[in-house]
Amino acid sequence: MPDKLPVLLDCDTGIDDALAILYLVNSGLCDLVAVGSVHGNVTALTGARNTIRVLDVAGLSGIPVVVGADRPLAQPVDISAHIHGADGLGNTNQPAPSADPAQGEAAQQIIRLARERPGELTLLAIGPLTNLGLALLLDPDLAKLIPHVVVMGGAAIAPGNVTTHAEANIWHDPEAANLVFTAGWPVTMVGLDVTMKTLLSEADQKRIEDSQRDTARFSWDILQFYLDRYQEFMGFRTCALHDPLAAGIALERSFATYRKAELRVELRGEHTRGMTVADLRPGRQAESPVELALQVDAEAFREKFLDTIC
Ligand code: RIB
Ligand code: CA
């Protein structure tokens, strides 16, 4: 059995974040070291409490979960309750979390753990990037201490999902995202180019519905609200496994194929603020290249996700 990958998670625990956490802790491949929450799908405090609720379902206590930034660096906060529900878990009124969030703050936790374990931690960010941006501003050496950052966010070629060109996690804090993509640390961007290909099929949904595992029953419960929202704009009952795919790629990069390119975040465009602008012109040498996931074996990932959850 391979050694478990030590992962530091930053999330805005809504529905697909919850599925990603369940995937991570049931994969057998991940040592979840700690979690930080951030504004986005929910407030940072609700995100931390939802994360503890999800870890309760997995029977895991004692993993430090701290609250992070409750607003972006340079724009008003905008909580996306319409996609994940007022409680962030599909308005399913889950039992209260078994514990309060741990003392401390997410950006400081990233810095502390990176300094305690230099060169060891994969930083997996599946919400807006405010905590990572703050950590980079507070600790100029941080980028040298983290060997791999995996971001669910952006879209190199695919359209956006909040606006025509902006994906939600980047749209929530474009300035923080720009800091993350230009910090010079090894970043893999798992954007809508690949996550919108991991749509749950009817058979996938039936498999989750039919499973008697607590993890699957919880997933099925919180998925209903998300499936309803997707049905409204996709015209059929499905949903994208955005955050679970980023978790899957952090643990097993072979699910996708990649291309390295310079990547900047548009900060001023009237119609394009929050767009991830990748330089895909042939023969361009990137100063601080970002690894873009552009193709995915969606079938293989969905299979692995269902095997892990059900
Ligand atoms: O665009 C999808 C991303 O935005 C996911 O992380 C989802 O949880 C929302 O935060
Ligand atoms: Ca998320």
Walk me through the structure.
The model has no long low-confidence stretch (mean pLDDT 97). With 310 residues, the chain is of the alpha/beta class. The protein is globular. The protein contains 13 helices and ten strands. The protein has helices at residues 15-26, 44-57, 81-84, 106-116, 130-138, 142-145, 168-171, 174-181, 192-195, 202-210, 214-234, 242-251, 298-309, and strands spanning 5-11, 30-37, 65-66, 122-125, 148-152, 187-190, 256-261, 263-265, 276-278, 290-296. The strands form two sheets. The chain has an eight-stranded mixed beta sheet with strand order 3-2-1-4-5-6-10-7, with helices on both faces. The protein has a two-stranded antiparallel sheet with strand order 8-9. Helix 1 packs parallel to helix 12. It binds alpha-D-ribofuranose and calcium ion. Residues 11-12, 14, 16-17, 41, 126-127, 243 line the site of calcium ion.
